[in-house]
Amino acid sequence: MLLLFAIGHMPITSVFSGNPIGRQEVYTTWLTASLAVASLICSVAISVYIHSQSAISHYGTPAGRLEFVSQYIGLDRAIRDPESPPLRPILNFPLLISPINASDPDKAMNLPRKWKSSFGMVYLQERHFTVSGSVSMILQFRTGDFRFEECALIASIPESASPSASDRTTTLEIWRLEAAEMLRAEEITWNNRPRRSALFAHWDVQGGSKLESNRFNCSWGSFHTFEFVAAASDSSVLFLQDPTEHGKGKVNLYQPVQKP
Length: 260
Description:
The protein is an alpha+beta fold. Strands 1, 7, 10, 11 and 14 form a five-stranded antiparallel beta sheet that branches. A five-stranded antiparallel beta sheet has the order 2-6-12-8-9, with no helix packed on it. The longest helix is centred in the first third of the chain and has 39 residues. The N and C termini lie far apart (66 Å).
């Protein structure tokens, strides 16, 4: 590099002054080196500019609002064998199961069940589903998979759901919430929960009952958030929800495959 710099700042006539061919070779070398350096500087400048623009475009954007890129591009034009076996429906377990308490409106109550083992802390998938006069439940689902874009809420209530649910019917109101992105369980409280947009369903709950809502559109990659509220202040529904065990309660998003 020092040699090129020295050559670039040396009068060409002082090198090989009596040899025209030598002067041409020095000029060619100097021009090639200059173009290479200029090209390198341009490449670095373009790279820095693109990186800075990308950083600016995502600066301050919450992770939950970043778009999920579809991996199903072109499947709507693919040819499927009509004799292939039908696809099974999806039972979509909620991403989020979080209670909120009107009696303690600024406290986040989502405390996952866990136990400490010899190889670290183990967090269990099971969650308490707790609805009472002051406590309601927020459940959030995210839909996925191609052509599974018609959904319904379904529930399987265990016999031992609670004294209230096993002795008499408890009415639950299910409200849709305005939440277009993923919620953070550790931040949800009664006061900062998403706003209710519409009453989605009424469920009359008893121990051992199975319930299903009307179906609704659930496009790929969308979030669907619901709040479960006891209609009467003196009623409650309590059970343990676990996606892996039979005999325990479950509230799922049911996604049957749509016909082509």
